[in-house]
Amino acid sequence: MKTLFKDFWTIPNMITLFRIIAVPFIMWCTIDPMTYLPLGNYVFPLIGLIILVVAAVSDLFDGWIARRFNQGSQLGEIADPFADKLMQCSAVLSLVIIGYVHWAFIVILILKEVVMIIGGFFMAGDAKNIKANYMGKIASLVICIAIVLSFFHPYWVDKAYVDWIVLGVGLVLTYIAFFNYLKQAIGIIKGILAKKKAIKEGTYVEPTEAVEEVQVEVIEPETK
To answer: Is 43 helix (H, G, I), strand (E, B) or coil?
Structure first.
């Protein structure tokens, strides 16, 4: 635990902490009608949206700073994606509470996140062995766009629920990425369980790196 928090006071971690702290303010300013602002003929939760966008944009800087100034940490690797998912789910939940998003969307989204969290606990440090899934990044971007659109839901009601359509597409993409993640995770979890079983039975042998045999050709010196 001490190792995990030894590099807590870094700029990237503080930016991540800012995103986590922003979550209750995003929810409050989205749910409370007293914070809404007029725009044209409508009134929208614009303050909640502004806080959300500022927090989301800050995510672009913490990764760059961590790489540029070598301030990456184990805590940051855990907290950064957690903050992203927390912001995303809390924003959708807030929009569900005020009736801007259908409740089915948040159920589908949280179900996937819960399964991934459980899988992450099982894999612990082995999660880094999962290959990058670019579909997940695309899905996250589409969902973010859908969330922004959903803050203006009253405007889209008469326009074929464009915000819900984009959110639905984002959820389909995120589940495609999720099943790719799941296939890799199942293999890793099986390996972890097999290792634990072997250790318990006393049959586990620590793998050793294969050493390639190097053939050396000995050249006898010429004799006169």
So the answer is: strand
